[in-house]
Specification:
309 residues, FAD/NAD(P)-binding domain, binds iron/sulfur cluster, 4-stranded parallel beta sheet, 43% helix, two-stranded parallel sheet, binds flavin-adenine dinucleotide, Fumarate Reductase Iron-sulfur Protein, Chain B, domain 2
Length: 309
């Protein structure tokens, strides 16, 4: 048997279950230790090594790390890893002087098509190396699906703007309302681009082609499109009773907006949510004022129920 190689990061990934379960392999134990010591800015910067949006993830991540948390074996519920990430982000203070800055220009130009998380990650990594990054975004703002598909009660615009700003402020030349409709034309631009990154996303929901779909008409919405319409304020209400089909993030993001309530008769919903899913329709209705607070509380309750189920 070979001796353990503790220089190999995979060793730590495998023995620290939450870190291994996190798609970004965030160093969870270390950042929670830092928070416990009140070192929020250090915890934030450590998080930022693995993913560039700790404040956003602290509010929106589906947190696969938490079901893996070993604390569950003792306390029957995991450490609130995701919400602690939010704590570090909210209490970090001014970290401007710790953020990466643009490096001395190396003479190379890179075009990024789209200003979603993928292109922003490219810019975050290339700007400090001296690349000139030009970003073309067809819409009026940066963030991609993070901006157009996550409602503001879940992800305040200020958090989004703050973390996106950390990247764009590294001298990224971003051009809004500039859809790229010809790669040929882009490649022929002068000065020329040395590389083009296509970060246009895959923003299409899946149709459910079942008998009755056509007859349902405008009462049936595809999750991704519906959330985008809410973000752009094309929609501000939905009927009194809503049936949500599917057990993915847009479903539970959509489940508690402004006064709508969600109900699903699907078995998969109940299996996934555990006993709280049998809550009576209407019980998620929140008073008009202070809805986001109510949602946070509900969210915490759900997190525990998931851990327990
Ligand atoms: C409700 C919801 C919740 C989610 N939660 C999470 C989560 O918790 N964790 C997670 O990791 N992922 C999550 N995701 C998935 C995540 O949002 C996507 O994987 C991610 O946004 C993809 O990033 P992207 O940059 O590739 O594309 P997008 O975010 O789709 O961005 C593409 C950008 O390109 C622009 N664009 C498109 N075509 C052109 C063109 N021709 N010219 C110029 N610009 C163009 C668009 O306007 C857009 O701004 C979630 C998705 C949804 C819908
Ligand atoms: S909350 Fe999300 S990003 Fe953070 S450690 Fe867990 S899985 Fe990783």
């Amino acid at each position: 048997m070979k001796p353990t190689d503790v220089r190999d990061p995979n060793y730590f990934h495998k023995v620290v279950d939450c870190q291994w379960a996190c798609p970004a392999h965030t160093n969870v134990p270390e950042y929670i230790r830092l928070i416990a010591q009140g070192r929020y800015a250090d915890a934030y910067m450590l998080n930022r090594q693995s993913n560039i949006f700790p404040g956003i993830l602290g509010r929106t991540c589906d947190r696969p790390c938490e079901p893996a948390c070993r604390r569950t074996r003792i306390d029957e519920k995991p450490v609130a890893i995701c919400r602690l990430k939010r704590v570090a982000a909210d209490l970090k203070g001014d970290i401007t002087d710790r953020l990466p800055t643009a490096g001395a220009r190396n003479g190379k130009r890179v075009a990024c098509i789209g200003a979603g998380p993928a292109s922003l990650a490219v810019a975050n990594d290339l700007a400090p190396l001296g690349y000139e990054v030009v970003m073309f975004e067809k819409g009026p703002s940066a963030g991609g699906l993070m901006r157009t598909n996550v409602p503001v009660f879940r992800l305040p615009r200020s958090v989004l703007d703050d973390e996106i700003g950390m990247i764009l402020n590294m001298g990224v030349d971003i051009r809004y309302n500039t859809p790229v409709d010809s790669l040929k034309a882009l490649l022929q631009q002068t000065p020329r681009f040395d590389a083009v990154f296509v970060g246009t996303g895959a923003p299409r929901g899946k149709e459910l082609d079942l008998p009755g779909r056509a007859e349902g008409g405008d009462r049936i919405h595809i999750g991704i499109d519906w959330l985008e319409s809410v973000a752009f304020e094309h929609i501000d209400k939905i009927g009194e009773r809503v049936l949500i089909i599917g057990v993915a993030t847009p479903r539970w993001i959509a489940a508690a907006p402004r006064g709508a309530w969600a109900a699903s008769t699907s078995r998969s919903w109940r299996a996934a949510r555990g006993p709280t899913s049998r809550r009576r329709p209407g019980s998620w209705k929140t008073p008009k004022k202070n809805r986001s607070t109510s949602w946070s509380t509900t969210s915490r309750r759900r997190s525990s129920s998931r851990a327990a189920s």
